[in-house]
Design goal:
Blueprint: E1 4-11, E2 17-20, E3 26-30, H1 32-41, E4 47-51, H2 63-71, E5 77-80, H3 86-95, E6 99-102, H4 109-119, E7 124-132, E8 138-140, H5 152-162, E9 166-171, H6 183-189, E10 197-200, H7 206-214, E11 219-222, H8 224-227, E12 228-229, E13 234-235, H9 242-252
Parallel strand pairs: 1-4, 1-11, 4-5, 5-6, 6-7, 7-9, 9-10, 10-11
Antiparallel strand pairs: 1-2, 2-3, 7-8, 12-13
Helix pairs in contact: 2-3, 7-9
Amino acid sequence: MRKRIIPVLLVDQRRRLVKTIGFGPRTYVGDPFNVIRLFNEKEVDEICVLDIDASPLGRSPDLGFLRELASECFMPMAYGGGITAACQCESLNRAGIEKFVLGRSASDLGLVRELASTFGSQATVACVDVANDSKATRHVVQAGRPGVSLNPLDHCKRLEDAGAGEIILQSIDRDGTRNGYDLDLIRAVAPHLSVPTVALGGAGEAIHLAQALHAGASAAASGSAFVFIGRLRAVLVSYPSMLHMDALNDSLS
């Protein structure tokens, strides 16, 4: 199976496209509709939209906004944010969303099972946030809350057993840094799962995407790598060609 390159768009409460660093400070990037149209032209593999304010505010998915966004999107779209029930996914599916990303609600394995049973594992995606503690030991952090400590691989296996068909493995420490993925984390998890692992957090340029795939990820996802350029983080929407990615992959072999 060909490995995928996936832009991740973070939207906030005001329906703006933003980018965070370490899940903290936000930078305004632009209008999500305009960015979707640009990615259409670049024929990206698929796209993932995450509403980063929905769950913290206890809000359901913004269905009207997502319906409009999906109508402009010519590629498969995944969505995460505020999903707490299978009935919400039925509405999202009718709006044009093909995959459902569970973040904090992935701790409800019953919900993971229900989505996998209703929509199929291929549509059920779990996002696992991982951070390092003071001893540089990696552990799962749910909704950015401290005190929840789970081994990343053990947690991913539980989600896989519950029916998740894909795992987004996100490094909070690398989020927005543009210094590259946590490759050791990818190597520690991806080879031990039977479902695809999507690396997220840290990519700033195309070589980082290639490094994640070389480390074992089935797909490399990023926000920064596709919307920022240069040290000053100027906004420029881009997407690497397959020829470029093939050359980078060959350089790592």
